[in-house]
Amino acid sequence: MRGWRYNPAMSANIDAYVSPLFDVVSTKQREALYRNPLNSIHLSVPLGDDPAGAALARLREWQASGVLLQDELPGIYAYYQYFRLPGSTREYCRKGFMCHIRAYDWAENVVLRHENTLPASVNDRAEPAGPHAVPDQRHARALPRRRL
Fold first, then answer.
1. 70 near 3, Cβ under 8 Å?
2. Is the predicted pLDDT of residue 62 greater than 80, yes or no?
3. What is the model's pLDDT at position 33?
4. Buried b / exposed e across 127-141, counting CB within 10 Å, b at 16+?
5. What pTM did the predictor assign?
6. Residues linked to residue 79 through DSSP beta bridges, in sequence order
7. Domain extents for the chain?
8. Which residues pair with 95 in a beta bridge?
9. Pfam families, alphabetically (predicted)?
């Protein structure tokens, strides 16, 4: 997998371009994130009658204009998500990684769904591939991550 990242020239303001996970963004937070035309919210929770088409168009636009640049070498991408639970001052860190794997049909039970996923938040991402899907990438989305 050769990841796509925001152009390094944008690194100083990276917090303005990345958004929380699509299933935890509040309506008020979304409104603020949508104001930045380069925020990743436009890829993960796009507006319009054809969200998948809008995300694909925006992704291609950012790739063509150099907003997003593809890594030269394939890699395994580690990431850390820091968060606090409501009502708690304790900070938690979720660690994970992203890499390229073959996409299997859910019914094959090779790659299992996340145990705590909110169905309403992911139904459009788990449905059979639509007209804008790329073969073998139906259940994946490329987001810029830092490689260790």
1. yes
2. yes
3. 94
4. eeeeeeeeeeebbee
5. 0.63
6. 96
7. 4-126
8. 80
9. DUF1015
